[in-house]
Design goal:
The chain is an alpha/beta fold. It has 14 helices and 12 strands. An 8-stranded mixed sheet has the order 5-6-8-7-9-12-10-11, sandwiched between helices. Strands 2-3-1-4 form a 4-stranded antiparallel sheet. Helix 7 crosses helix 14 and helix 11 packs across helix 14. The longest helix has 22 residues. It is globular and about 60 Å long. About 10% of the residues have low confidence. The structure holds arginine and zinc ion (ZN). Zinc ion binds next to loops. InterPro entries: CARBOXYPEPT_ZN_1 (IPR057246), M14A-like_propep (IPR036990), M14A_act_pep (IPR003146), Peptidase_M14 (IPR000834). Its main location: secreted. GO terms for molecular function: metallocarboxypeptidase activity; zinc ion binding.
Length: 437
């Protein structure tokens, strides 16, 4: 009986543990609303210190700020907030539970090909995947609906439209693929689209693959676009981090490179690692912090791979889109400064047209503006580099759904609606490119 009880307890513990890595049991999110300038300043100080994971950053007085705190941080954080006269409210009482709820659907149906009713990982490398019941697909002989495998199949089914190239390898050896969709020849104007730069933002690769699928499997509806514009897709540009968020730590953000110095932590924030005003704002040189900019500009091999493709394609590429979550924002440079690029009005106009079409699909509202002015200053981002160095005119960072109800764990049932509305925005942009260039 004793053994039986022990087994039951063990099973319960295993099931209740969302993932290895970060321990989420007892983690909560606390929300506060700064009412005075002093309180706002205190929150910004806390945000800059990088000790806590801010899920909604301090911006203005009267605007709610959400902070995730692990069990061991809750007391200390509550005390710190109360010292500033803030009244923390618990918004998500059980982060572990929230993560579990989303994960329960993943792979559970043993899908044979990629679909947009669940989230899918990138590519399984040899290390022995274990974890939750929901992830058994890794370990078993079931054909896992991995993104890379799906892309290869799609490209071979549609050779008239698709060119698939492996353009590099991640730190841990995952292939990084570029899928070109179009039938116009290489000199046509291009739109470059990437996703998955931040591991835990799962709606990003899901939406990007949805866009690919729409263009390719419904190509007759988009014939005019496909013959005048080339689409370049890289759905998961931080594949190690992305897969790690499936197997080990659902809330992982960075890459998975080894610490550059002893005692450091793994990985860097891939969107602080680009060589344009690197390390100037909204970034840390502490490797254990989520927005660590890396040991040097382009220290992360995955970003070198994307940089090289953007460089190769820069003369024809007119638009660069990079998908994140969450917040529902369509943002343009600069991210390193509050100043605006001199052609900002052109970028603003196209963004407004795009989000207008997006809203018409399901009523979802997106905010438009420069990323510094819309969220916060953060340098070393891919969007700033694409504009400032590669010279691509229309660069956007898109924060997909939602506004902070589900944070990074957007329910799988919202993948398709997100994909549909984002596709409407992409069509506006593609039509603009077609008629302008
Ligand atoms: N949430 C994104 C990030 O933190 C926004 C990036 C906007 N672009 C920028 N260059 N700061 O990476
Ligand atoms: Zn992001």
């Amino acid at each position: 009986r004793c053994t039986m009880n022990t087994l039951l307890v063990l099973a319960a513990v295993l099931l209740a543990t969302p993932a290895r890595g970060q321990d989420l049991s007892g983690a909560k999110t606390l929300s506060v609303v700064p009412q005075t300038e002093a309180q706002l300043k205190e929150l910004i100080k806390l945000f800059d210190a990088g000790q806590y994971d801010f899920w909604r950053e301090p911006r203005d007085m009267g605007m709610s700020v959400d902070i995730m705190a692990t069990a061991s941080q809750v007391q200390e954080l509550t005390a710190a907030l109360e010292r500033s006269g803030l009244k923390p409210q618990v918004k998500v009482d059980d982060v572990a539970q929230m993560v579990m709820r989303q994960n329960s659907g993943v792979y559970s149906r043993g899908a044979r090909s990629l679909d947009w009713e669940d989230y899918h990982d990138s590519y399984t490398v040899s290390r022995q995947p274990t974890r939750l019941d929901g992830f058994t697909c890794h370990a078993s002989s079931l054909p896992c609906p991995q993104i890379n495998r799906w892309m290869a199949q799609l490209a071979s089914d549609h050779p008239d439209l698709c060119t698939l190239e492996t353009v590099g390898k991640s730190y841990e050896g995952r292939p990084m693929n570029l899928l070109t969709v179009g039938k116009g020849g290489a000199d046509k104007p291009g739109i470059f689209i990437d996703g998955g730069i931040h591991a835990r933002e799962w709606i990003s690769p899901a939406t990007v693959t949805f866009l690919v699928n729409q263009l390719v499997t419904n190509s007759s509806a988009h014939d005019d676009l496909l013959s005048s514009v080339n689409f370049y897709f890289m759905p998961v540009i931080n594949p190690d981090g992305y897969d790690y968020s499936f197997t080990d730590d659902r809330l992982w953000r960075k890459t998975r490179s080894e610490p550059a110095s002893p005692g450091g932590c793994s990985g860097a924030d891939a969107n602080r690692n680009w060589d344009f005003h690197w390390m100037e704002a909204g970034t840390s040189n502490d490797s254990c912090v989520d927005n660590y900019g890396g040991s040097a500009p382009f220290s992360e091999v995955e970003m070198q791979v994307v940089r090289d493709q953007l460089t190769r394609l820069r003369n024809t590429t007119k638009v660069y889109l990079t998908f994140h979550s969450y917040g529902q924002k369509w943002m343009y440079p600069w991210g390193y400064t509050a100043a605006l690029p001199e052609d900002w009005q052109d970028l603003d106009r196209l963004a407004r047209d795009a989000v207008g079409a997006l809203k018409a699909v399901h009523g979802t509202r997106y905010q438009v503006g420069s990323s510094t002015r819309t969220i916060y200053a953060a340098s070393g981002g891919s969007d700033d580099w694409a504009k400032g160095v590669a010279g691509i005119k229309y660069c956007y960072t898109v924060e997909l759904r939602d506004l902070g109800t589900h944070y990074f764990t957007l329910p799988p049932s919202l993948i398709i609606p997100s994909g549909q509305e984002t596709f409407a925005a992409l069509k506006v942009i593609a039509n603009f490119v077609k008629k302008t260039y």
